Amino acid sequence: VGRKQRVQAKDIVGAIAGEAGISGKLVGTIDIYDKYTFVEVPKANAKKVLEKLKNVKIKGNKINIEKANKKNK
């Protein structure tokens, strides 16, 4: 999901906190593009977030969640 679905950072944080049961304060950078979004979560919580958000909808849109590749610095 992304800008075209009118998703905002608060929607992403709410879904992660509500479904994965982790504090929204642990969610890092959120980059929202037209059709997709990148979200940083602590490595210790990543597996749980991936598992718990598999069948979740955000603003009525089913999401496709997967681990991103590392950024090149």
UniProtKB/TrEMBL annotation:
All copies of domain DEAD box helicase DbpA/CsdA RNA-binding, residue ranges: 1-66
Name this polypeptide is given: DEAD box helicase DbpA/CsdA RNA-binding domain-containing protein
